[in-house]
Amino acid sequence: MSAAPKPTAPTPRERWFQPRRSGFRWEQERLDHLRGLPRTKPFRAWATFQFTGGSGRINECDVLIAVPGGLYLLELKGHPGRVVNHRDTWQFHGDCVRTLRNPLHLTDLKAEELKGPGRSGWTPGRFPSSSPPSSCTTRAW
Q1: How far is the C-alpha of 91 from the C-alpha of 83, rounded, in Å?
Q2: Exposed, middle or buried: residue 120 (CB in 10 Å: 0-12, 13-18, 19+)?
Q3: Left if phi > 0, otherwise alpha if psi is -120 to 50, otherwise beta: which for 34?
Q4: What is the number of helices (H) and of strands (E) in the chain?
Q5: Which residues touch 100 (CB under 8 Å, ≥6 apart)?
Q6: What phi and psi, each to the nearest 5 degrees, are found at residue 72?
Q7: Distance between CA atoms of 59 and 56, rounded to whole angstroms?
Q8: Per-residue pLDDT tens for 85-135?
Q9: What is the enclosing helix (H) or strand (E) of 66?
Q10: Taking a C-beta distance cutoff of 8 angstroms, is the pair 72, 137 a contact?
């Protein structure tokens, strides 16, 4: 009688989906770092993808990651220096001062659309067979 097969780790293709490399070197470096996730469940990630939300708006996402603590939509930023949050804007203090609109507002809208009923971008041919859970939290990194 042969021994029962032992479970194996999923292949990188099953846990990491990235249809295209990022056009930004700094962003791809951060994605490559995240690609080093453990090769066990529930760790999975979908990077550099777009989807059409229930509102009809096309949303571009840096990375959606599943970890033991939940599902997180990450917005990657690559501005050097110290960041100061001023509610609707972020100021980056480095070699100069740069002001951006706070990315958490748009990222939160994307997360809401991802978990909503009109997730037309989540088609079986484009994403791994297991859909993300219905709850999603936003994070900027």
Answers
A1: 6
A2: exposed
A3: alpha
A4: 3, 8
A5: 77, 79, 89, 90, 92
A6: -125, 135
A7: 9
A8: 998 999 989 888 989 899 888 999 998 888 876 444 443 333 333 344 344
A9: strand 58-67
A10: yes
Q: How many residues are there in the chain?
A: 141
pTM of the model: 0.70
- Token duo for residue 86: 């001023």
Q: How far is CA 130 from CA 13, 57, 96, 118, in A?
A: 13, 23, 44, 17
- Helix H segments across the chain? 12-15, 25-34, 103-115
